[in-house]
Amino acid sequence: MGGPIPGVELVHIARETDNVDRLVAFYTEILGFKRMDTPTFGPFQVAWLEFPPSQQIHIIQRNPDSKLPESPLNAGPDSRKDPSALPRGHHLSFRVSDYDAAVKSLKEKGFDVFEKDQQGHTIKQAFFFDPDGNGIEIGSWPK
């Protein structure tokens, strides 16, 4: 194959949604992302968010004709939002500076949080869902 492509850097993660404003509010008010200048892409709504110095999430209005399999918006009737399944499922992960305060804040805001301690490690992890059903993890990883 000739080796990896040189100079690759992760720029952003994209999330599709039926409600851009609701998901933007979640990522800005709960996780602290900031709105960025966002180009106009046409007849659908897009919001670019940044967590300095360089992590980005792009929130994109869902194409109703698309049935992407990874989208929780396309989940079948037998699916359920069980945060205890997230350690082995699709999720975004964020390091937090005060794990206990972060978990307390999430619970006070009504999020169903599953906490997981790694036996033999000091790392703590908590899993929950954003308003669209995307998996989110926060943890106490060392820098």
Automatic annotation (TrEMBL):
CDD domains given in the database record: VOC_like
Region called Disordered, residue ranges: 60-90
Pfam families: Glyoxalase (PF00903)
Gene3D superfamilies given in the database record: 2,3-Dihydroxybiphenyl 1,2-Dioxygenase, domain 1
InterPro entries xrefs: Glyas_Bleomycin-R_OHBP_Dase (IPR029068), Glyas_Fos-R_dOase_dom (IPR004360), VOC_core (IPR037523)
Gene Ontology molecular functions: lyase activity
Record bears the keyword Lyase: yes
Keyword Lyase: yes
Keywords, ordered alphabetically: Lyase
Ranges for domain VOC: 9-141
Protein name: Lactoylglutathione lyase
